[in-house]
Structure formats: C-alpha cells, structure tokens
Design goal:
By secondary structure, the protein is α+β, with helices and mostly antiparallel strands. It has 2 domains: about 1-165, 2-Layer Sandwich (Heat Shock Protein 90); about 170-270. The protein has helices spanning about 10-15, 20-30, 35-45, 70-75, 75-110, 170-180, 180-195, 255-260, and strands at about 55-60, 65-70, 115-125, 130-140, 145-155, 160-165, 215-220, 225-235, 245-250. A hairpin with a 3-residue loop joins β1 and β2 (about 65-70). It is flat. The two termini are about 25 Å apart.
Length: about 270
C-alpha cells in the first residue's frame, strides 16, 4: 500500500517487530481454526490495567516529540511493548536527526527551525479476532510546511502479531477489481465539493484516480465485524497540499466479499 508519512518514521511492520505473512500467522496462531481456540489464546494475554494508556510530550530547543496510544491498545501487553519500543526508537531517531540538522545549520550560518514528530495511535475497529489500528502522524523537518498522514495495521488476538490489512484479501489486484469505480466516484464527489466545481482532466496529476497501492487501506467495524473499508489518500496523492488528505469510506458489498480470502470472511459482515 501507500508509503508511510515520513521518512524518519520506521515502517510500522518493521518498527513493531515486523508484520507476519498470512501463511506464517496461520501456522503460529491457527487463524483457520475455530473461534473458541482463538478466543482462548486471546484470554491468555491478560490485560495490564496499570498505565495502559500512554501520552508522551517532550520539547527541547532541538525538537518537539509526542507519542500516544489509548488504554484499549495499551491493555494488550505484547502490543503495548511494541508501541513503547517504537516510541523510544522514534524519539531517539528524531533527537539524532535534529542534532545533526542544528549543527549543519550553525556551520552554514542558517537559522535552525525545530524539528517535530507527532504520532497518535487509535483503534479503528475490532472483531473477535482482530484489532484494526491506525497511526496518525505529523512531522516537520524544516521547509515551507510539515507533512502528515495515516497508516494502518491489524493486530491478531490469537497470535499476538501484526498483519497488513491487504493480506486479508486475495490480492491487491482482486481488491481493485472488486472496487470497480466506487472509490473513484466517491473521491470525485469530495474533490468537487472542495474545488467548487468539476474535477480536472483525468490526465492531470490531481484529476486522475489514484492507484490502490498509493492509498492506505483501513478496516472499520461495527464493534463485532468489519463492515466498511476506508481508503486514505495523503496530501499530494489525490489533490494539492492545500486540499489536504482524502478519506473515502465504502461498505462491504458482495463484490468486496468475494475479494476477501475465504478463511477471513467470517470477520466481515455478510
């Protein structure tokens, strides 16, 4: 799917102890096994009620850093450990980059503008077997403006491991075919509202429909099963920076269900 929102941020799967392929996950956790077995594995991971949520805010002359996640995520010990490791790593990377940039600016006789990284983890949806996680991030590394974006992963309750959302589908191509023109049509409605008129020519970089690999896929739920997907386009993907990002939610229809791998269809609404 789409590239992560900032080069200094380690890709989620690498940063959070790597994502697992469906095949490996199934061997380790029995994803194809019945729900009671998975529920039992999840119950073994007892929540930690003390200090489950986290909200870090650090400001120095060199950098500003914030990192947070809610109790819903922090109450899962294995996930909390990965998030805390990411927080430590991200701040260390930011501190090092800011120090180097400050030294370079001083040597070149330029003013230094404080670097900034903000990361906020949220729960986007949940089922019996999965937590759908969203990472909202914003950065500033000098220049005219900062950058921001969103990325998503799934946490499997049975295996206590991470998985990319696209891996629940037959393939990226199958998902794109199942979507048909639904995404592009919905995106253009938002574009017209922001632009106050018609969408530019499809050959224009901000008039074309972004390819699926340029977008971030997020699975949303009704609290029991995934009932929607959200496709996220970061600034510059579907429009100029001034237009901001675009979020398009689509319900799970028959075509999308056919694109889901059979062993995961029970996690989606019928």
């Amino acid at each position: 799917m789409a590239a992560r929102f900032a080069t200094i941020l380690i890709a989620i799967c690498a940063g959070l102890a790597a994502c697992t392929s469906p095949e490996e996950l199934e061997k380790q956790a029995g994803v194809e096994s019945n729900g009671s077995e998975q529920a039992g594995a999840a119950e073994d991971a007892l929540p930690d009620p003390d200090g489950a949520a986290r909200d870090i805010t650090e400001q120095t002359d060199l950098y500003a850093f914030s990192f947070s996640y809610p109790e819903t995520l922090g109450s899962v010990p294995a996930l909390k450990e990965r998030l805390d490791e990411q927080a430590n790593r991200e701040e260390s990377d930011l501190q090092r980059a800011a120090r180097e940039a400050s030294e370079d600016a001083r040597e070149e006789g330029f003013p230094y503008n404080r670097y900034m990284v903000t990361i906020e983890w949220k729960l986007a949806g949940k089922t019996e077997n999965w937590l759908s996680l969203v990472e909202n991030g914003s950065t500033y590394f000098g220049g005219a403006h900062g950058n921001y974006g969103l990325s998503s992963v799934l946490w499997n309750s049975g295996s206590q491991r991470l998985l990319e959302p696209i891996m629940l589908f037959e393939s990226q191509e199958a998902l794109a075919e199942a979507l048909g023109t639904r995404y592009c049509d919905a995106l253009n409605v938002q574009r017209m509202a922001r632009r106050g008129g018609e969408v530019t020519d499809e050959d224009d970089m901000f008039g074309r429909c972004p390819a699926l690999e340029e977008l971030e896929l997020v699975l949303l739920s009704n609290g029991e099963r995934f009932d929607r997907i959200m496709l996220y386009a970061a600034p510059y993907v579907a429009g100029p920076y001034a237009e901001g990002d675009y979020e398009v939610e689509l319900g799970i229809d028959d075509a999308l269900r056919e694109a889901i791998k059979p062993r995961y269809r029970e996690d989606f609404i019928s």
